[in-house]
């Protein structure tokens, strides 16, 4: 398997050939009206961050519109309650480069944003993102460098929005199963049994 490893961009380009013209046309340095509409309709995105000692990619989700378009070069995103590992936020403090990929259920295309992030604790800004009277602890401001859409091939191939292709939930490992496998003696069954009340209670 390791006998045929590519080692140069020249080898890679010779294998794949020239980019499809539309793949270059679609990349712009600021939000167009369609790109803005896509972000405002998206209830979910993945956030990739980088730091000298590691990488992180984590999910972000809330009701559609939770990512606020400040203008065509800036996004504002609340950091909702989580597990307090704050890996992404630590990375942003050390290296502001971020990549975001937005998904809309049922939509084949994805939208990608690359930029530089900072973390704001401005009281008025935090309060403007409050839900049930609970503001986020920080708001991530993303200065956009580039934005472009990803074609539908990956989502079509994966059947991500096709329920008939989904595996049965009861055949998959639960959060408790994964925790029990990671730590001897962990009561995974108890953890799972509490999820129904724990998760709704701790969303915000």
From TrEMBL:
InterPro entries: Pyridox_Oxase_FMN-dep, Pyridox_Oxase_N, Split_barrel_FMN-bd
Spans through the membrane: none
Pyridoxamine 5'-phosphate oxidase N-terminal domain mapped to chain residues: 32-151
PANTHER family: FAD-BINDING, PUTATIVE (AFU_ORTHOLOGUE AFUA_6G07600)-RELATED
Protein name in the entry: Pyridoxamine 5'-phosphate oxidase family protein
Species whose genome carries this gene: Tistrella arctica
């Amino acid at each position: 398997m390791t006998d045929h490893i590519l080692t140069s961009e020249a080898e890679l380009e010779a294998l794949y050939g020239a980019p499809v013209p539309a793949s270059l046309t679609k990349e712009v340095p600021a939000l167009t009206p369609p790109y803005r509409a896509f972000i405002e309709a998206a209830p979910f995105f993945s956030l990739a961050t980088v730091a000298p000692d590691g990488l992180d990619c984590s999910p972000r989700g809330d009701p559609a519109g939770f990512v606020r378009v400040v203008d065509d070069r800036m996004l504002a995103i609340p950091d909702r309650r989580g597990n307090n590992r704050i890996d992404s936020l630590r990375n942003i403090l050390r290296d502001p480069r971020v990549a975001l990929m937005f998904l809309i259920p049922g939509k084949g295309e994805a939208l990608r944003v690359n930029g530089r992030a900072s973390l704001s604790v401005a009281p008025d800004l935090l309060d403007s993102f409050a839900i049930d009277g609970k503001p986020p602890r920080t708001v991530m401001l993303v200065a956009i460098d580039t934005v472009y859409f990803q074609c539908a091939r990956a989502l079509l191939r994966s059947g991500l929005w096709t329920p008939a292709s989904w595996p049965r939930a009861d055949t998959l490992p639960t959060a408790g199963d994964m925790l029990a496998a990671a730590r001897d003696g962990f009561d995974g069954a108890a953890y799972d049994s509490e999820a129904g009340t724990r998760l709704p209670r701790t969303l915000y």
